Amino acid sequence: MILQSSGQNFKPWSEYVKGFRQELERQSPIPIEVQSFPVVIASGSESAENRLAEYLNALFSSHPPDLIVAFGAPAAAFAQRHRRDLFPSTPMLLTAIDQRRVQQMNVTENDTVVAVWIDVPALFENILKVLPRTKTIAVVIGSSPNEQFWVQEMKNQLEPLKGRVDLLFWNELSFEEILKQAATLPKDSAIFWIQPQIDVTGAVHEGERALKRLYAVANSPIFSHDDSFFAGEIVGGPMTSVSQGSQTAAAVAAKILGGTKPRAIETPVLQYGPAKYDWRELRRWAIPESRLPKGSEILFREPTLWELYRWQILAICAAVLSQAAMITGLLYQRRRRFLAEVQARQRMSELARINRYSMAGELCTSIAHELNQPLGAILLNAETMEQMLRSSRLSDATELLGIVSEIRRDDERAGKVLQHIRSLVRRVPIDVKPLDLNEVVSETLDFLSSLAIARKVQIRHSLAELPLPVKGDYTQLQQVLLNLVVNALDATAHKAVNERVITVQTKRSDNWAEFSTADTGPGVPPEQLSKIFEPFFSTKPNGMGMGLSIARTIVEFHGGIINIQNRSSGGAIVIVRLPLIR
Ligand code: ADP
Q: How far is the CA of 381 from the centre of ligand 1 (A)?
């Protein structure tokens, strides 16, 4: 039979009863029937008390309980007063009660006590330790007989604090008044919470609601003596432990039910365990952890973002890092590729120059022929002039002037040939500018004419009527055509002289400026078609295999396309297309 102080939901006793029942159920080898009775007694009403005792007696008359457990001082007071007529032979356990509230004189042979000790000075020292500037402490407490005892007890115990802090006891105030006062406490105040059971107006305050209402309006931190209130509103400190109290009481109850005589069980008075603090309240009131007593527990610590999302954060960091690494890698590769491209272009222009050198060798015969002609003419003219001078035909000055102008013309022609050779073998930087493709082709063909004569090949040409504007480097484009024509000359070499024909054509084709060289040679064997643009591919005994490869590099550098086909009429045709500019 459980006798519970006040109503079913009165804290802290409701919590003690809950814990006690759970623990007893856990410890008992047999099922135990528990009947719980709230001891709610109008103050000083003896007849009501007697009737409650009679009621309990009537209820259990045929089967007296095996154990009576009274929780809290009001229930204990009732049970002790009525011990003689309340199943005196049944063992009784008084618990959840301060040692001072037990009437030691009335403890019988059949009774035992599991008491606590509310160390009042320790509770208030805690407040002054964590908030050293505190000047005012308001005690929230009701005015029932039990509470009146505690008001007096606290006043006595806290006597030494006089002068150090102002202590306000709000036992004479209604709860509504208490709320008003709590909202307007002076700076550096604290509130000490003892659940007001019955306030001066007779209003009863149950459960957590009262504390929550106070918390909502209070302008100062709240402390308490019992950890059943420690759930979000209380800063913390040393407190009576509900779980320790209920577990100890359940262990004693189990012993009694097992046959141990109550008097034989001596339970030391329960003291406070390590102080407990609410991390959120410490933050709210800016209380540094260094101020807390050694060994304190800090509860309700809110996990940091890192604690909450450690894996997500790590995963994101890993992703970002690997991306950064990838980007760095790609940038590095890009830079390497860029350098490689620069190097390749340098090599290409070097090779192109070597290619032009060999071309100059190839062209040597025709160059010699080209130079011989003007030089021979100059010599002839010089001799004619000499004869004229010797024969003193000086009167005919006009004739002399004609000869001089011929010499000058031939000299210019020889100079042009030399200029061509120079432009072929000189190391020239790439110079891209707008050009007319027709001009490049016709000037190059001029230059090639002697070579064609020497090789006994006929070069025909058909140029587009309108200019073909392209953007490009003159020497490089000329080199492409030279390579193609020289290949065509080589290809026709084995043909009968009258069959050696090369046709060079320029035309506009959509947005392209096109030039092509067609020959009457043997064409390219189909299996070689895919290889001939590769560097060092050659079928000629002294060939370098660079001509077409360089031609393709140059054409692609100009944004163009080059390809070779076999003509249906025999021989090969190489077509080059370059983007037209407007
Ligand atoms: P090379 O002339 O030094 O051999 P090229 O790169 O200019 O180098 O030519 C590569 C090969 O392509 C030649 O050896 C030849 O076999 C083939 N080729 C090029 N042009 C023609 C053509 N007009 N007709 C037939 N074969 C050709």
A: 44
